[in-house]
Every structure is written in structure tokens, then in C-alpha cells.
Amino acid sequence: MSAESPDNLVHVYTEKGITTVTLNQPEKRNSLSLSMLKVLSSVFSDLETNPDCRVVVVAAAGHVFCAGHDLKELKGQFNQHEAQLAVFQECAKVMQQIVNLPKPVIARVSGVATAAGCQLVASCDLAVAAEGSRFATPGVNIGLFCSTPMVALSRNVSRKHAMEMLLTGDMVDARRAEQIGLINRVVDSEVLDETVYGMAANIAGKSAFTVKTGKEAFYRQLEMPLEQAYEYTAEVMASNMDANDAQEGISAFLEKRHPEWRDE
């Protein structure tokens, strides 16, 4: 299944349970204009209940993954607080949609991801980058601190690493991004797709119900005190045990056969 968004801002393609969402404005460095954000929000909303989609890959056309917000658009909104706020709120909405999506989201990064583009990478559940890719939250260099990108960044890397990126605005290469936990893996560009889609296919082969349960629980427990997190996840596991797929999976394991998921 293939689809183009209005004005071809985003390309959506689904095959074998994997939906690729491609930012498709390379001439604008795939910047997150308000129009782009609204399209992405609509796409993620549709994917939430799309039974053909089990895993999402976020990719980008061209040599830049995403340069962040459209600065020309923001400059045109100088002294228009409500218009500026609408852009940042729409961006926050999209990032939360990714986290709350009941399907795993993998960032396929080839090129530069800066500011809100780095935020997009950090918001995805997993991220794989090609060698040579670079990341930054450089807002401090232009007098606009990356406050909203900071939310996703600080939830993925340690405080001091996050603060270093935010305060210096310096570029971080892919190897360093992997070391500090911003991305999962760095691979040669020749095997980027093989790695990303191999990972996606692996996850797509799991029970969609179980993956949904686990992803939701992962993000919820992160914000809880230790005792509360254990109480919550114990309830999640007990409820998960009642699911058909858990019973099928355990039985299949004990009987040494492949499980037949019903996604329930």
C-alpha cells in the first residue's frame, strides 16, 4: 500500500506489516513546517488503528534527515506569539503521537538531524543511523534555545550529555550518538536498509498485542517511583498472562513449535 500526502510532503508505504513514513521535502531539508507537522499528525493518527501496520519506519528523502523547524516560517511570525506557539504545540503533539502509538517506531537516519529533527529521532522508540550522520540541538547558536527538543533528548541520554548538546549546539557524530544512547546502532550506508528493515521485520513477527502492551508499559513506568513502577508492571504482566497470545506463546515454547499469533 502506497500513498502520498497533500503536496507530497510525506510518502507512506506499507509492505509486510512495515509502514515507511518518508519526509519528502529534501529541497527544504525536510524541515518541520506547520504543514509538514499537520500531515505527520494525520499520518500517525491513521496508523494507530491501521491493521496492516505493525511497525513504523520514519525515513527521509535526500541528504538531510530533518533540519528542524522551518526558520523562514518562524521568522515570518516574529511578534506573533499565537502563531509561533501553534508550531511548537503541533510539534509536541506529533512527538507524543510517536511515543503513544501502539506500534514501535524506528528512525532510519541518513544525514543530518538537528533541533526538532534531533527531537524526532529521540522521540522514536529505536533509531539506526548510517555512518556519517550527525546530530545537534544548535538553537543556542541562533538565540533560540532548543527547549522542546530538550524534552525528548533528556529522556534518552544522560543529563550531562543532554546539557552538553543543548549548551554548545555542537554537532555529534553517529558514533558518539550511539555511545550516549541517542541512537541504537551505526552502520555503513550500504547496509542501512538491511539493518533497519531486518529489525522492523523481526518486531513485526511478534504478537502485535504483546508489543502494544509492552510499549505502553515501558513509557508509563519510566515516570513512576520504583515501588509504583513494580506495582504497575506486575498488574500489566498478570493481565498480559490472560491474553490469548501469551497463552499461545508459552504453550508453543514448551511444545517446541512456532506460535500462531492472533494479536489478542
From TrEMBL:
InterPro entries named among the record's database cross-references: ClpP/crotonase-like_dom_sf, Enoyl-CoA_hydra/iso, Enoyl-CoA_hydra_C, Mitochondrial_ECH-domain
Keywords: Fatty acid metabolism, Lipid metabolism, Transit peptide
Matching CDD domains: crotonase-like
Record GO biological process: fatty acid metabolic process
A Pfam entry, by short name: ECH_1
An annotated Gene Ontology molecular function: hydro-lyase activity
Family (UniProt): Belongs to the enoyl-CoA hydratase/isomerase family.
Record's function text: May play a role in fatty acid biosynthesis and insulin sensitivity.
PANTHER family linked to this entry: ENOYL-COA HYDRATASE DOMAIN-CONTAINING PROTEIN 3, MITOCHONDRIAL, PTHR43602
Protein name: Enoyl-CoA hydratase domain-containing protein 3, mitochondrial
Organism placement in taxonomy: Bacteria, Pseudomonadati, Pseudomonadota, Gammaproteobacteria, Pseudomonadales
